[in-house]
Write a structure and sequence with these properties.
Layout: E1 6-10, H1 17-28, E2 30-34, E3 56-57, E4 60-61, E5 64-65, H2 78-94, E6 98-102, H3 106-110, H4 125-131, H5 136-143, H6 148-151, H7 159-174, E7 188-193, H8 197-213, H9 216-225, H10 230-235, H11 238-247, H12 253-280, E8 285-288, H13 294-302
Parallel strand pairs: 1-6, 1-7, 2-5, 2-6, 7-8
Antiparallel strand pairs: 3-4
Helix pairs in contact: 5-7, 8-12, 11-12
Length: about 300
């Protein structure tokens, strides 16, 4: 690759991202970095669709990263993903391999092109209470007293964002050793799998039925038996939220299947909305159908 130094493979749930990522890795001497906010957790295998058996192509194991790196029940924050992503990326590049960042978590994909280092700065509730009574013009003037490097890029479109900007600038003034990275190292070629909506619904329905019949409920039971609470299980969202309700006898099996299927349909639509937002922000995504031609895709990558 020339202009790009990694591949970002994205798509809605049940679109076949893992399979394509593994095929590309097999042809490009690549290694996969997961950009999935739930696959970081151990023992969440069926519900998060890790599909670890797919990481073997023609008898060879495809190396993967950022899967099974945190305990379920704990919080894995964006800044932890960003730090781990940088370590994995640099290590893969150092060994002259191709990083293939694969997933559908929009915020994780945005970390390839947006500097989120300032999201770690804690909220200052005392300062917020002081600023809340000021109008927008007063807040903008307050922002202007800070050094330009502390307020560069701050969004002034709403009071809430200006207050957060002042909060960040105040923290940076009080912690001069806190510096954000000058430039992100990633230059991704974005490839997206885009099944038509009807096929997407069929894929989701078929996959959900298969998972329910092949251990998904048992996976949730095992997590609860291993000291996870129902509250923690529900925080994992989607499958685990509805499984918690089912295992507490708050919904029937039929309601579990119907309500969860609808929730996954809605989730896939939200993913596509995020990807369209990325395109509106200037990201070029090379979309392929699920029945893509692998040779054509490899040719695209070779000249990019």
């Amino acid at each position: 690759m020339k202009q790009h130094n990694c591949i970002a493979l994205l798509g809605p749930t049940a679109s076949g991202k893992t399979r394509l990522a593994c095929l590309l890795a097999s042809h490009l001497q690549g290694e996969i970095i997961s950009a999935d906010s739930r696959q970081v957790y151990r023992r969440l295998n069926i519900g998060t669709g890790k599909d670890l058996e797919e990481y073997r192509v023609n008898g060879a194991h495809i190396p993967y990263h950022l899967i099974d790196v945190a305990e379920p029940g704990t919080q894995f924050y964006l800044h932890e993903f960003m730090q781990a992503l940088t370590v994995c990326f640099n290590d893969i590049v150092y060994r002259n391999k191709m990083p293939i960042i694969c997933g559908g978590t929009g915020l994780y994909l945005d970390a390839l092109r947006k500097d989120f280092s300032l999201t770690q700065i804690p909220e200052n509730h005392t300062l917020r209470n002081e600023l809340e009574h000021l109008d927008k013009n007063d807040l903008v003037q307050r922002l202007q007293i800070f050094p330009a490097q502390h307020v560069a890029g701050i969004d002034t479109s709403s009071k809430k964002r200006i207050i957060r900007g002042i909060e960040i600038a105040t923290f940076l003034a009080m912690h001069p050793g806190h510096v954000k990275p000058q430039q992100l190292p990633y230059r991704p070629l974005y490839i997206g799998i885009k099944p038509d909506p009807e096929k997407r619904r069929m894929n989701i329905s078929h996959r959900l039925t298969h998972r329910l019949n092949n251990g998904l409920i048992e996976e949730a039971r095992d997590l609860l038996a291993d000291s996870m609470t129902h509250e923690q299980l529900q925080r994992l969202g989607l499958e685990y939220k509805f499984l918690s309700l089912f295992l507490q006898n708050k919904i029937t099996y039929m309601q579990l299947q119907q309500q969860l299927e609808t929730a996954i349909f809605q989730f896939a639509k939200r993913q596509m909305t995020w990807f369209r937002k990325m395109e509106k922000e200037g990201v070029t995504i090379h979309w392929v159908e699920k029945n893509y031609n692998l040779n054509e895709l490899l040719a695209l990558i070779a000249k990019s």
